[in-house]
Amino acid sequence: MRYRIEFGQSDANRMKAQKFRQRVFRESEVGLDEDKFDKISDHCLIFDEKKDDKLVLVFRSRSFSSMKDILCSYSAQYYDLTKLTRLPFKPLEIGRLCVDKTAKDPFLLLTAFKYLASLISNGRRDFIFGCTSFPGANNPKHLASLRSLKKNQLAGPKLSITKKSNSILDIKTIIGSDKRKMNNNFLPPLLKFYLRLGGKVSDHAVIDRDLDTLHVFTYLDLNGKKNNYL
């Protein structure tokens, strides 16, 4: 196999992930992209053995014992998740996914998503969530992409994600007035992964000036076909 995967909470892996994220997210070789959630999360690192075992992709995951606990998640900093806490699910948060900008092999993301699927299955998780980001907080391409989500991918009223951040873009109002052709070609790979499996997104996006991104809360209810929550 071309790719080698390391996974866990070791200090060494965490620092490799933080340094890699600093280079990709902030375009800097100095410092670490870190936050208070890193030490309580598992980090997945994927290395390309055809390129001298170069680190090419990272993401982190965090399991919760109950839906009530997701109020202490990374995503809960930006979105009010109170309505979700009544659900009888086993949640898993995925985040901070980033890919080396020189990596061109389409099987890299496939490898990451296959491993992610194994984490979900082995951990018997049935509610996957996180913030999926669009690079560039003011990129006009995002308007058409977000508008493409409006028709079928927004969370239903019973599981709506309440606004919490002051810096938001309302998909239903601002995007609805945009007349440009709908386009989902610029959707982030992780978001496409969620949507293919029936994922839903919040009706608003949060503007993150620190990382210069625009992100939406995304969740995947793996038991959605059995329940009537949506």
Q: Can you tell me the number of structural domains?
A: 2
Helix content: 10-25%
What spatial form do the alpha-carbon principal axes imply? globular
Please provide the count of β strands. Answer: 10
Tally of alpha and pi helices:
4
Q: Give the termini distance in whole angstroms.
A: 40 Å
Describe what this molecule looks like in 3D.
With 230 residues, this protein is an alpha+beta fold. It folds into 2 domains: 1-63 and 92-125, Aminopeptidase (3-Layer(aba) Sandwich); 82-90 and 127-230, no CATH class. The protein is built from 4 helices and 10 strands, in the order E-H-E-E-E-E-H-E-H-E-E-H-E-E. The protein has helices at residues 11-26, 106-122, 141-147, 189-196; strands at 3-8, 42-48, 54-63, 79-80, 91-99, 127-135, 162-163, 168-170, 200-208, 213-221. The strands form 2 sheets. It has an 8-stranded mixed β-sheet with strand order 1-2-3-5-6-10-9-8, with helices on both faces. A two-stranded antiparallel ribbon has the order 4-7. Strand 5 (91-99), helix 2 (106-122) and strand 6 form a beta-alpha-beta unit. The longest helix has 17 residues, at 106-122. The chain is globular. The model is unreliable at 225-230 (pLDDT under 50).
